């Protein structure tokens, strides 16, 4: 299990033991984290699972793929650390990953 920390917009921290290979979005939904709508179910066909990767983790997590970048055009308040949580797959190297949820989804 890999530790995933998701911080809701109101500051509530959710510390989740995530299975490697699962996505940040799957873990957020499974643990009832508010602010992740995930309307497309993880198909990278919407922007309702938009998150901000903590700045200390952005290089390790990496940049979005072109298809993800296209979907981020529809997200609210996109920042340099923006990602779609359905496209971030957990792995052992991400132990302690911190993800922040925006004020609202698009």
Automatic annotation (TrEMBL):
GO BP terms in the entry: P450-containing electron transport chain
InterPro entries the record matches: 2Fe-2S_ferredoxin-like_sf, 2Fe-2S_ferredoxin-type, Adrenodoxin-like, Adrenodoxin_Fe-S_BS, Beta-grasp_dom_sf
Sample GO molecular function, one term: 2 iron, 2 sulfur cluster binding
Obligatory cofactor(s): [2Fe-2S] cluster
CDD domains the record matches: fer2
Superkingdom as given in the UniProt entry: Bacteria
Annotated family: Belongs to the adrenodoxin/putidaredoxin family.
Descriptive protein name: 2Fe-2S ferredoxin
